[in-house]
Amino acid sequence: MYYGREAIVPYRFSPATAGMGADLIRLIDALPELVWTSMVDGTCGFVNRRWCDYSGLTANEGRASGWMSIIHPDELPHIRTIWAAAVAARIPAEFEACLRRYDGVYRRFSIKAAPYYDGAGRLSGWCGINSDIEHQRHAEAQLAAEKRLLELVAQGEPLSDILHELCYEVESLGPGSMCSILFSDAGGQRFRVGAGPNLPPPYNAVLDGLRVDPTFGPCSLAIATKSTIVVTDPPNDPRWSTSAWPGMMSEFGLASCWSAPILGSRGEVLGIFAIYRRQPMGPTSDELELIDRFAKLAGIAMERAQSDAQLTASSTELLRTNHFLAGAQRLSKTGSFSLEPLSDTQVWSEENFRIWEFDPTIRPTMDMVLAAIHPEDRAYAFAVFSAAVEAKRDCEVFYRIVTPHAGVKHLHTVMEVIPDIADRIVYLGSTRDITENRLAEAALRASEADLNHARMELVHVSRVTALSTLTASIAHEVNQPLTGIVTNANTCLRMLDADPPNLEGARATAQRTIRDGNRASEVIQKLRALFTRKPPCLESVDLNGAALEVLALCSSELQRRRVIVRTALSNDVPSILADRVQLQQVILNLVLNAADAMADVQDRLRELRVSSSIEPDGSTLFSVKDVGIGIDPANVDKLFQAFHTTKTNGMGIGLSISRSIIEAHGGQLSGQPNEAGSGATFSFSIRGERRALRGLQDRSAEDGTKAPRASLGGHPFVRAGELTAGRLA
Asked: Can you tell me the distance from the alpha carbon of 372 to that of 139, in angstroms, rounded to the nearest whole number?
């Protein structure tokens, strides 16, 4: 995790780093974890730059006071005991602790240390790594809170109890916050207080029965716009210049309010979910996600309560209740089922079909289930299930499945025997998709893996990521020619069955079938070229055509993100001698990066402009312009450095590799903020002459070898024919 600040203290090599090479030191400094070593007696010997950035201490101060100086005082005695025992026994140590950041804030870390030895087998000291798990702990707490609330909903607890519990859960996840839930009456004219346990009672009394007026306060405006309204400074916000609401806030010591509409399954407004604070401040991205998720939970609880109240009035209300339960299952990614093993009779919920990606119109069987389980886990899962059935007991199993789209999911299944059925065994079970949890665990373990191996595989992993993002577009591209093939084949058969046979028409439809087959083959070949390793292939490339193919490939993904694409491709752009796949990879990176930059834009259209033109010097200029969050002009060069990223899930190599590709083609890649409005523009230019590339091609043809890595710009993560794909920055 990067803590968003430049190194605030001087950093230099020390005697503790004398045995390390400069490259190794730089590599350790680039790691997102806090890395340290200690002497044989347990005293600190070395800390990396991330440790200094996080703690605000110099390397010398870290060695002088030791890494224990930033441990929370309440935990320090216990940690000292653990560390002393590990040092004395010369064994690895693993524990958690709250570490003080440079600004005084404590964050939770997982600390692992292990002894290391010299060539003669003598103990040299300990090496430790501190991994920030604050976000993970917060996410786990949020998931646990959501599960508790969903259990209350499923158990049919009173709505008021659920909403009060929801407020308490939100306030525990965001210390210092006060939560409020308001109902909107059927006509949307007035508010009713649903819960607000820690807001001043007089303030709740004013809200109860208050008329909905978008000019009065953010809660009313959130209902009118069906969007989240954030107010950080009510007295100076022009939206409430004629309202009495800012004075009410000041009277009760409230300084900021974040209001979100609670929407029903049909998009209707059920109420308002709001968070108040006594300090003027806006929500972080994590807090915005928390507001969105718990507003949805409140909506589920409200709709469930409404459906329960109307259940006896009509049988259609029962179907509506099931819809709410299905929504809760989708939210928790948990499917339910019943199973009679002896007759292989199974009844699945909608979410269970979605998790397994089975056709809901087909009756599931054990053979289908076993065939979908990953080959490496199939025997184990079957053994656990068989033993449970034979013993007539409950069972629990973790395993992987391979979906019809060749994706791998991690599942957790729990089955319990229904005790009231005496003549046969019947299980009631649930299956939860825990893929995200497993990926998070893998990400934590990846920091301890062999770094050299990670380097070699990094590029290919990013391609697979992009491939999963573009699955919908790929299916669309391939499905069209396949549909044409089936239609033409059926038409050809009817013409041949006619009396007399229509041979001329059959020949024409057969030719169309061949055309559609070739088209499907071309789509597959392009996808294989884009996402598999292959040596560079120089050819005459129509840059406009290559760009349009990339936009078509990711059209579904851009539509999902509500991105509007506008093109301004000059007809005068000449063909260039280049590797088509590599140029398309650069374009794909720029397009997806631009879409990521506009992910949080709500106040304007998410417009993506792709253009090409001829420069005065005769070179071709290709640009991708967005209206997103923009970039700091002072940090433009850092965007092209390896491992530098502004994204939470970014790897920090996409733009670095893209620049290497363009430079290998004799061009330049740059980025800059837009002169007018928001957003940024990334462009690359390539001149008409490609002598260096022609020479590379000639040498490869003469000696039958691939081009050396240096020919692709000397980037350490670029080998011949290998590119990155996906949202990298």
From this structure: 30
**What is the sign of the dihedral through the CA atoms of 496, 502, 507 and 511?**
negative
Q: What is the pLDDT of residues 468-499, one digit of tens each?
A: 555 545 555 566 567 778 777 888 888 888 88
* Cα separation, 408 vs 402, whole angstroms: 5
Q: How far apart are the C-alpha atoms of 218 and 234, rounded to whole Å?
A: 10
Say which residues have a Cβ less than 8 Å from residue 157's Cβ, sequence separation at least 6: none
- The edge-to-edge listing of strands for the beta sheet with 563-569 is 563-569, 606-614, 620-625, 680-686, 668-673
Residue entry with tokens 């004629």? 242
Sorted by sequence, the CB contacts under 8 Å of residue 297 that are 6+ apart come out as 146, 149, 150, 166, 331
Rounded distance, CA 621 to CA 632, Å? 23
Render pLDDT for 570-622 as a digit per residue (tens, 0 to 9).
988 888 888 887 888 889 889 988 888 898 888 888 999 999 999 888 889 99
* pLDDT tens digits, one per residue of 12-40: 334 444 455 677 778 888 888 888 888 88
Beta bridge partners of 87: none
Give me the residues paired with residue 605 across strands: none
Find, among 549, 569, 528, 581, the residue nearest to 473 by Cα. Answer: 549
- The H-assigned helical ranges of 447-579 are 451-469, 471-497, 503-531, 543-553, 555-560
Longest CA pairwise span in the chain (Å): 99
Burial of 521 (0-12, 13-18, 19+ CB in 10 A): exposed
Q: What is the helix (H) or strand (E) element at residue 391, kind and residue range?
A: helix 375-391
Nearest CA-CA partner of 631 in 670, 657, 592? 670
Sign of CA dihedral 510, 512, 514, 517: negative
Cα 169 to Cα 290, 477, 561, distances in angstroms: 11, 46, 31
Degrees, nearest 5: CA angle 399-402-405? 150
Instruction: Count Cα atoms within 13 angstroms, Cβ side, for 90.
Output: 9
- N-terminal to C-terminal alpha carbon distance within the chain: 15
Element (H, E) at 323: helix 316-332
Residue 156 falls in which region: left (phi positive, over 0), alpha (psi -120 to 50) or beta: left
**Whole-angstrom distance, CA of residue 37 vs CA of residue 17:** 10
C-alpha gyration radius of the chain: 31
The answer to whether the beta carbons of residues 664 and 711 sit under 8 Å apart is: yes
> Residue 588 in contact with residue 554, Cβ under 8 Å?
yes
Most confident region among 20-24, 54-58, 542-546, 576-580 by mean pLDDT: 542-546
Q: How many CA atoms lie within 13 A of 230 on its CB side?
A: 13
